[in-house]
C-alpha cells in the first residue's frame, strides 16, 4: 500500500498537459507523477526535468537512456523504476536481444563496448559509496563526448530521485509496467514487491 495515494490525472490541469509526455514514453501517466501532484510545483518541475534529461542531443539514443535508467534502478533495488525503464526501453526501440539479455550486458555480444561503458558508468554512479573512478572516466571518453556524458549522468541522477521517491512511497505499479517487468525481468526474479 502506498505511503501517499496518487491523485486523479485530472487533479491539476498543468500537470495533466505536461504529463502527455508519458503517454508516448510508457503508454500511461505514472502513479509517481500522480502522487507528486499533492504539490503541483513538484510534479511540474519533475516532468520538465524528465523531458530535458530524455531529450536526445547527441549519440545517446532514447533506448540506451532507458537501459541506463534500468541499470541505475537495478543497482538501487527499485522494482517500480526497473519495470518502467525496461518498458520505456522497449517502446523506444531497444533491440529485442538487448531487452532479453539486459542482465548480461557486460558479456552479451549484442551490447557494444560504448554501451557497456555507459551502462557500467550507470552502475558505478548509482552505488553508495559512488564507484565512478578514473577507469570509468577513461572508458567513457573512448566512446562519448562530454555533452553525451552529461546526458547519461542526467538520466542516472533523474532515476536516483525516482528510485528514492518510488521505493519510499511504495508507489503502486501500473498494469503495463508489471507486464514489461514480468516479460523481461521476471526470469531473474523480478516481482512487484511493495509496489503491488
Automatic annotation (TrEMBL):
Domain called Carboxymuconolactone decarboxylase-like: residue spans: 40-120
Alphabetical list of InterPro entries matching this protein: AhpD-like, CMD-like
GO molecular function annotations of the record: peroxiredoxin activity
Signal peptide: none
Any Pfam family: CMD
PANTHER family: CARBOXYMUCONOLACTONE DECARBOXYLASE-LIKE DOMAIN-CONTAINING PROTEIN, SI:CH211-175M2.5
Identification of the protein by name: Fusion protein
Organism, as annotated: Planktosalinus lacus
